[in-house]
Amino acid sequence: MAAYLIGRELPLYGVDLAAYDAFRDTSSDLIMQTIGGDRYKTSLLALGISPFMFSTLFVQMVVAFKTADSKSYTSPRKITRATLILMAIWATVQAYFTTQSTIYIFDGGWQLFLAKFVSGIEMITGAFVILWLATRNGKYGVGGQTILIYVNILDSVVNAARSVPFKDLKIIGIFCIAALVSTISFENTEYRIPMQRISIHSIFSDKNYIPIKFYPIGMMPVMFSSAFFQLPVYVCTLLVMIFPDNKDFQWAVENMDTSHPFGIGVFIVVLYVITVWFSFIFISPKKLTESMQKSGDSITGLRAGRKTRAYISHRLFAIAVFSAFDLSLFIAVPLYLNILGLVPASVVSLPSVIIAMASINCNLYREFKAVKEYDAYVPFI
Fold it and tell me: What is the model's pLDDT at position 129?
């Protein structure tokens, strides 16, 4: 953690740090800081954990769509190699676009080109340094990469709260409290689908069920929607570079952020898509149905097969949409209130980071509890 904090303070080569004072307190800062290395993309760890998160997620999605026979030929080494290759590609693309929007002390010429090239290499290197830190923490510590996210969250919350008078925190404070209560409640609440297991013939036979949390994938929609929101941003930027005279593309680039209604709408659409899509990937109705067919288990009152898969899919879709709706309330409403001038831009994203922090706390509590319970059995092993 100390190495990560130090890396966030090491500036990139040629960056004009004084120029970034004018860009403080923008509404997108806190959202992107949860997955970014620093708020203004000016340090060695500017890319944060987003390349690692994106590559890991993409590889997991590819593996999830494979058949059982194909998975048997996919070794952990192949998965790791594919993740690293994709991470290098994504980090390179992200570093390129970041250097195009970064302010340097050089006005032009070969010095500006050199500054962009060197800073890009530094950002890619920083992304792999973060991967190494997360891997070491996962092996010898608790929380893995979530600890790095937690550091960003705490830093963003403290800086945002200190930058605004207490009287201006009333409205956003209500949203933060509501988001905290909602996240803790739904992270620990689950919808239970009753099922019958042929292998259990005891008083516990009536207590079998398929659990689905009301937040099926936890904080992932908040984290990954911020990362995937960069895809339409990069696409619009690329289209402007290809068609510089197209006014529609220029308007899209100018409004593709969370301080404009258009950008907020795109962000919420991404949030819904990510929530539903990821829910069906990590809680696959198809895999659950196939597993139940092989074991002879079934949902109470339903035959195994298509009806079971359809039943689970409908329930999962409804829960995922409800989760996305709940999250969007705490993210979109403050953003629109900021446009109306009712909420300061520097704290408009506090509810989203509170959601992430509460979700991480719930996961860390479960992990610490599991470690404690495991240690209690050590003398008997």
Answer: 84
CA distance 98 to 191: 42
Buried b / exposed e along 150-179 (16+ C-beta atoms within 10 A): bebbebbbebbbeebeeeebeebeebbeeb
CB–CB of 104/15 below 8 Å? Answer: yes
CB 126 within 8 Å of CB 45: yes
Joined together, the tokens standing for residue 127 give 């992304």
> In this structure, what DSSP letter does residue 12 have?
P
pLDDT digits (tens, 9 = 90+) for 168-207: 788 888 998 999 999 999 888 888 888 877 766 555 556 7
In sign, the C-alpha dihedral spanning 258, 1, 16, 244 is negative
Question: What distance in Å separates the CA atoms of residue 209 and residue 202, rounded to the nearest whole number?
Answer: 15
Q: Judge whether 359 and 215 are in contact, CB under 8 Å.
A: yes
Closest CA to 352 of 252, 233, 213, 229: 229
Cβ atoms 122, 13 nearer than 8 A: yes
Tens of pLDDT, residues 19-60? 666 555 444 445 555 555 555 567 777 777 778 777 877 787
Q: Which of these, 152, 130, 136, 211, lies nearest to 32 by C-alpha position?
A: 152
Distance CA 94, CA 128 (A): 13
Pull the structure tokens for residue 315: 């329930």
Give the pair of three-digit tokens for residue 263.
């950008």
Sequence ranges of the domains in the chain: 1-163, 164-381
Superfamily of chain region 1-163? SecY subunit domain (1.10.3370.10)
What's the pLDDT tens digit per position in 250-298? 898 888 887 888 988 998 999 999 899 888 888 888 888 888 888 778 8
Round to whole Å and give the CA distance between 72 and 66.
10
Whether the CB-CB separation of 256 and 262 falls below 8 Å is answered with yes
Residue 325 is predicted with a pLDDT of 93
Look-up of token digits 């590609």: 89
54-63, Cβ contacts within 8 angstroms, sequence gap of 24 or more: 54/86, 54/87, 54/90, 54/224, 54/227, 54/228, 55/83, 55/84, 55/86, 55/87, 55/90, 56/83, 56/87, 57/224, 58/86, 59/83, 59/86, 60/281, 61/281
Fold of the 164-381 domain: Preprotein translocase SecY subunit (1.10.3370)
Give dist(CA 279, CA 258) in Å, integer. Answer: 25
- Tell me if domain 1-163 and domain 164-381 are identical in fold: yes
